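Researcher: For the annotation table, I need structure tokens for F-box domain-containing protein. Please keep the output clean. Sequence:
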Amino acid sequence: MAVIPRSDPPSRIHPEPQQTLGIDHFDHLPDSILLLVFNKISDVKSLGRCCVVSRRFHSLVTQVENVLIRVDCVISDDDNSSLSSIKSRSSASGPFSSIFRLVVGGIVKPLQALGQFLGARRSCGSSSSSSLSISGDEGGEIEQGGVTHHSPTQVLKNFEEIRYLRIELPSGELGIDEGVLLKWRAEFGSTLDHCVILGASSVIQPNPMRVSQAIVTTTVASDDNGSIPESFYTNGGLKLRVVWTISSLIAASARHYLLQPIIAEHKTLRSLVLSDSDGQGVLCMNRDQLEELRVKPLSASSASKRTLVPALNMRLWYAPTLELPDGTVLKGATLVAIRPSESKKEASDVSWVSSAAFEEPYEAAVKMLVKRKTYCLEMNSF
């Protein structure tokens, strides 16, 4: 029988064993790079989730310098036992109500490691209970439907190196009518440093077909020479602006009072901003102002939980109608610049007013209003 020679079977190429299988590439990144990533994340809830990934992440998250806290709901100190005391929107609370304690929510109970990182204390009640409860006076937690909420003070407890802190409320404290514009920006040290308030009785949104015409209109000098019309004093216009001013100052001083424990505990802070999702009000404190509060304690109002507002000097600018470069029209546009009467800064210097960082088009409104006639007012401490 003939033997048919067979060729050697074709050689097969086998991949080399994957040497990197099971290796965590994050282990090769230095801590400084991971900290850059965590600082970019900044959101405290996302950082809390990062901290349960590994022990290394847990230890690095506590060293984050840039932190953002978004507050989910607000709890009234006057009625802690009532479910109706939860205010997810500020429309139900007026500016003259008592100070509200902020609560950061969204921490689900099964993530116990996350809860421990945030410094939360476990509630004695059952997590399945539908009732709402608050445990503790400072930095307490709230349970509802298996979700635990924590105050900003409690959330920040284990952060050691915070330098830049931003806290965002779910909405502004001032309930205003639809169509009314009211914005404020305040800076505090141990007391009010200055405050800028921009308001308008109504806002007419721009018509794209009229934008070019609006730009021309705003460059032409007004024929009212910037004077306030007599009707402003007789139809309640001035009284309304006074209410706006007092309400904004109360909201700002209440926020300032709330920040005391955070500022005292975190000595590394260089900048603190407390704003709201509506863009209604912004409270800012820089490094020098934070240090001033630590050295010189604030004076609290005897009437409510807020910082005492000192005697004030105010400058007011008013325009019955103000047409902005983008075509937006403000009816009854009003700008109020406020400083304490005892301020050592030159009272006639209003250059700082134009630098108030309102978003456009309202920054343009501020710059236009300060060119008009100035009216001076005074207000006693309250």
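Researcher: And a one-line annotation?
Model: Residues 309 and 382 are 5 Å apart (CA to CA).
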